[in-house]
Amino acid sequence: xxxxxxxxxxxxxxxxKAALYRTDGTLVxxxxxxxxxxxxxxxxxxxxxxxxxxxxxxxVGRCLRESGTxxxxxxxxxxxxxxxxxxxxxxxxxxxxxxxxxxDMRCQPYIAWLSExxxxxxxxxxxxxPTCDHGPKILWWMHERPDDYARVAKFVMPSAYVAGRxxxxxxxxxxxxYTFIHFSGLADNRAGQWSxxxxxxxxxxxxxxxEIVEPWRVIGEVTEAxxxxxxxxxxxxxxxxxxxxxxxxxxxxxxxxxxxxxVAGTASVLAGCTDHFVADTTHRAxxxxxxxxxxxxxxxxxxxxxxxALRWFRDEFYKYEIRDTKYxxxxxxxxxxxxxxxxxxxxxxxxxDMMIEEAVAxxxxxxxxxxxxxxxxxxxxxxxxxxxxWLGFSWGHTRAHFFRAMLxxxxxxxxxxxxxxxxxxxxxxxxxxxxxxxxxxxDAWNQIKADVMGxxxxxxxxxxxxxxxxAMIAGKAAGIYDDLAAVATxxxxxxxxxxxxxxxxxxxxxxxxxxxxxxxxxLVGIFTS
Length: 529
Hints:
By secondary structure, the chain is of the alpha+beta class.
């Protein structure tokens, strides 16, 4: 039997995940590995480009070995990756600088300069107002690290770095697929090309920018050296791949106008699906990403570290729930350490469930308590100076109130994003929200968001979306799939009934969303003064 397989790899912020699929969408094997985040100085967050390659090789190899799959039956491989940070290569396709993470805010002065002087031009053409993304970061390297910048042949994404190195490319064949270009700050998004108007205005030479390609473009084949690293067969086709949010959206079947997509992960991302390009020149909050599906757009906005803030609260304010188990690990044997590590992980999950249960017992609105979720600076719109804040607490508020306020703050931000989207597309009917990521597993959390936003949340039977989205792209590159929208729809099957908004709770939340928006505006003045 000559059954074919597809591999999708997601190069995330803190981990790499690989998955092996049959062409009917069945998950055969998956593996994950941690990717270090480096903090060489206050406010600086970097990663090694070769850590993306190393962990991709490790996880792909593990999938093939543990499943016993003949690597010659892998039809193609594709990568997705984090989107707003930027890496670079020299002429030999080796790293010229470390990867400048989307969590790194060194480029803040350049964001401010672009916002003050060129925001309309950049927003109108890219669909994304100046924020912490490629353009300001490239300007930072150009002006603040000229010696490092001189080594740069091309700026690339992690997905392109790993794929290009696997294929043995040189810098003249570097690429970026079109789902990333709204984050470039340098592109004409609707035209799908680099903007001479923006590049000339900012003084960025276009020769440091890679070729823009479609996600399913075969950019090369696995070399002999990469075959040894990954356990793949030499000659396996490599697709360009796409951004992680785009891969997740495809994997979740977000392929029809009116759908809403919630990535409840480290960052809290909310995206719509439309057949209209949106340039949010008024609020500078929405960023319009190209969908993998031609002709569709995903206007989105996100909270940097939204999910990370929830984990921080769990670890700091519920630490006593897991302290004793961690203490037990101090002088444990290796076998004991493995057992204790499992227990800590399990207790952490159980603690989060308990936190949700406590928060649900608090009335909608957290009895007047509000939270600002921008602990590391606001991204949409770009206000890097902002930080987190609780407002309105009193003697009667408990830790459950504080946690509910955190959950509601993310939902309030989402509701604001949808209000902006409706300003630009008044007749857009929002039909359902599909959620992925760790936070999507909680029905109670989904209910809060549905109540605030007034849009049903539909659970899906599939639990892994990013690697499946990348694997579908690999399938199209290999000629196995033709209509990606049809394939995505067929495999994103609902799991049970949708979580519908409570009409009563939605009415309670409507003025609270207004209040949250007003408080955010006041906090901008406080943090930027």
